[in-house]
Amino acid sequence: MQDTKWYRKPEMVVAFSALFMSLVTTVVGIYSAYIDRAYARASVWPNLVMYRSAVPTLSFHISNRGTGPALIKYAKINDGENYIKYWKDIPDFPTTTVQSHIGGMTLPSNESIPAIALHEKSSQEHNQMFRKSMSSLTIELCYCSIYEECWFIDRNNNTRSVPSCEISEEQRFLQ
Q: What's the pLDDT band for 1 if we cut at 50, 70, 90?
């Protein structure tokens, strides 16, 4: 009788084959879970855009052009060195405006809100005041996806990824 090496025995070949298949299955499962998570994040990716409009009245809008809801964590608006807490705090701002709350809200996918708009019956003087006031403002938003991936956007629609949305209370826009 010939003595065969332990790793050449048929039961060991079967055991190594089973171990190899288990390892391959584990690697494929881990990769599949990674792809599923990436797909899930992409399927709820928000993408905010800020823009001005003149139809039907002068207004400033925030729109979510992404595939998922945008959790707006904060808004920061300043006029030079002064941080604005409420729209009415802007110097020489017309009183004939319709205002929306933009900080701490959820903006669904493919939705748009007018952050501020002139009333339809505003005078030409109010139109000029609105344009002048809005042109001097710096507006910044920080928003996150439902997976807490966060982005920062400025008024020029420059977007960058940030680890989280943090702001001091004296800089936070409250309305």
A: low
